Amino acid sequence: MDPVRSVKIKGNTVPMKRRILVVEDEEKLRRVLELQLASAGFEVEKARTAEEALKVADRADLVLTDLRLPQMDGLELLAAIRRQNSQTPVIVMTAFGTIETAVAAMKTGATDFLLKPFSLDHLMTVVGKALEMRALRDENLQLREELGRRYAFDNIVGRSAPMQEVFATIMRVAPTRATVLLAGESGVGKDLIARAIHFHSPRRERPLVKINCTAIPENLMESELFGYEKGAFTGAMNSKPGKFEQADTGTVFLDEIGDVPASIQVKLLRVLQEREFERLGSNVTRHIDVRVVAATNQDLRAALEQGTFREDLYYRLNVVPMNIPPLRERKEDIPFLAQHFVTKLGPDTGNRVRDVTDAGIVKLMSYHWPGNVRELENVIERSLVMCSGERLDAADIKLEMAPRSRAQADQADRFLPDGLTLDQYEQDLIREALRRADGNKSQAARLLGLTRNALRYRLTQMGLES
Ligand SMILES: Nc1ncnc2c1ncn2[C@@H]1O[C@H](COP(=O)(O)OP(=O)(O)O)[C@@H](O)[C@H]1O
Ligand SMILES: [Mg+2]
Fold first, then answer.
1. What residue numbers bound the domain in which 385 lies?
2. Which of 85, 194, 341, 448 is close enough to 380 for a disulfide, judged by CB 3.0 to 4.6 Å?
3. Nearest-CA neighbor of 195 among 242, 152, 251?
4. Rounded (5°) CA angle 127-133-139
């Protein structure tokens, strides 16, 4: 447990030492405890009696008290503290042979106890654990409080710092015509953000045209994007405007921009620079007024280095870069997203679920979310169908297909799952290992019985590492 925590004072985050109140009548022990805690980085306050302690207990982050004290004893002190403030962790110290008093103390609301004599090492473990629990409870409290405040922008949910930054950037750039480049893994919300930019712009009444650059085969791409004239190619019976023309005075959303073939990259560059193009089979230059938002789930800089993406186009696109971190890097958004999806999807599944239990949230927060918010949405939807109560609990939440136990897997089962190739199966196993290792590659490699280099090689092949 970090002895220093951050507190907000008038909007500024200030580091502050955690304060521990030591209540011990025996001079020598008091001194030892003080030295130990102070050298661990805590601020220590001392009291010789319970009466003295009560006067300052409310400003302590943790109270460490002896049970046998001169007048009012430790148990009474504990009870008094619980009446004052139920949250402060209180650890009681008691001598061997008086375990009953320790039990009584736990019943009165002690957080933990230490049996004398105890090692300083054990003391630190118990103190750390108590503070950790306290911090968790504070966090939950804060989360609940914030739920009542602003945690979303339109339908985009996010309380984390990077998401707050995303909201601010949307507000800042929406009124302009500046080109925006959204970068982030699949499922982080790029589509949602592109829409928000359009609908907060002066173009909101005009068309928003999405072009998925992966979905269109290369030979059809030019005509899709820029249109064609009658007779431009066999089968072109009529002329047809392309997506850019359809989006005139509106916004074009170029999704998966990293997949645009080189031949089209040149033409995009011209649209971005000059706002002009020609239809296929025509020599009439057309001028348009479009705002471009592009998105990519690849690292475009790597593509630049490999020469598969034009540098000039990259700089034209990257006027306002927005990076949306994967969900596992902003886990504090998970409780809000989960609540959002329960509220949004609940009515459709026709059940009575209103929210998620603390245990449910903990389960959701400890998962790696390779598919990001999209995967979270799917998991919640699936769980809602299974849930019969009013609150989604850990047991209702199925994160993935439960792995079959080794004993159950008979010879017939020991082959590839239906419809998977060996490569896909291997990739699944690698993803699962990464998830279990919480993204730690050395640990994932160990789980798979691979060297770190062998794993890296496979990740590169999967496009997960450059
Ligand atoms: N911050 C968010 N708040 C609410 N829903 C979100 C958020 N991010 C993503 N989603 C939802 O998750 C799904 C995937 O989002 P999408 O924008 O399509 O991701 P991407 O384009 O990055 O793959 C969509 O259903 C979207 O509504
Ligand atoms: Mg998308």
1. 329-396
2. 341
3. 251
4. 135
Last residue of a domain, one of 300, 323, 346: 323
**How many Å lie between the centroid of ligand 1 and the Cα of residue 377?**
8
Say if residue 110 is in the same domain as residue 124.
yes
Contacting residues for 76 by C-beta, under 8 A, at least 6 apart = 50
Which ligand gives the minimal distance to the CA of 372? 1
CA nearest 172: which of 324, 11, 321, 337? 321
* Atom of ligand 1 lying closest to residue 376 CA: 12
Report the residue among 156, 181, 191 best suited for mutation to probe ligand 1: largest number of ligand atoms under 8 A from its CB: 191
Half-sphere exposure of 403 (CA within 13 A, CB side): 9
Whole-number Å distance between alpha carbons of 308 and 463:
15
What is the pTM for the complete model shown? Answer: 0.59
Looking at the structure, do residues 219 and 364 belong to the same domain, yes or no?
no
Q: Which atom of ligand 1 is nearest to the CA of 184?
A: 22
**337 and 318 within one domain:** no
| N- to C-terminal Cα separation, the chain | 36
Same domain flag for 312 and 255: yes
User: Closest residue (by CA) to atom 5 of ligand 1?
Assistant: 156
Distance 200 CA to ligand 2 centre (A): 19
Q: Do residues 169 and 313 both lie within one domain? A: yes
Would you say residue 410 lies in a domain?
Answer: no
Output the residue whose Cα is nearest ligand 1's atom 24: 374
Decide if 406 is inside a domain. Answer: no
Which of the listed residues 155, 374, 379, 380 should we mutate to test ligand 1's pocket, taking the one with most ligand atoms within 8 A of CB?
374
By three-state DSSP, how is residue 34 classified? Answer: helix
Q: Tens place of pLDDT for every residue, the chain, 466 residues?
A: 567 766 555 555 556 788 999 999 999 999 999 999 999 999 999 999 999 999 999 889 999 999 999 999 999 999 999 887 667 899 999 886 677 888 888 888 888 889 888 999 999 989 988 888 777 777 766 655 554 445 667 789 998 888 988 888 898 889 999 999 999 999 999 999 999 999 999 999 999 999 988 888 888 889 999 999 988 788 778 888 999 999 999 999 999 999 898 889 999 999 999 999 999 999 999 999 999 999 999 888 888 888 889 999 999 999 889 999 999 999 889 999 999 999 888 877 777 888 898 888 888 988 889 899 999 999 999 899 888 888 999 999 988 643 333 444 444 455 666 666 787 778 888 888 888 888 888 888 888 888 888 888 888 888 777 5
Atom of ligand 1 nearest to the CA of 191: 17
